[in-house]
Design goal:
two-stranded antiparallel ribbon, 186 residues, 5 strands, alpha+beta
Amino acid sequence: FTIGSETAGTVGMPRLPESPAHMRTVARYFMDEKEVTVAAYRACVTAGKCLRPHTQADSQGMTDTDKCNYDLAGYDNHPVNCVEYEFAKSFCNFMGRRLPTETEWEFAATGLTTSSGDKYPWGSAVDTSKACFNVNTMTCPVGAKVKTLGGFEVTASASGFYDLAGNVWEWTDSEPCTYVADGSGR
């Protein structure tokens, strides 16, 4: 499948270049259909296998929409945020899983091809009815927006993934670096 893009990354976000677009092969793997909730992460903390994520008290200097949700009432079904890379790895170990590679994550998000040229499964524009882009709230409940598979919208009863566009940023087990021109690595 094609990984990367010939266009720039997300506006206003510090991102590495996503170009050049190039072909990658991905082996069979499994990935959870939903993000890790605050409640699920709290179970790992309670078991002594995960460190507490950053909390509201730690989030000084952040905007209201970027604040941490671990210690907020009513957020148990929201994706946990403000976790560091090592925290995410610890949670995966606790669950008997691992973080996906960048290639695996992008394959789940875009599917076999990105030939449509659209940035999102529903088109090229942000649509807050289809994904949580932190417009009026820090995060949205897990699974509350569009479910996708192979870069297209699917029904809730079909196989697929929630929140690959919007809600919170996901960690992968790949080192951040720029693509090389021949597509041989990242």
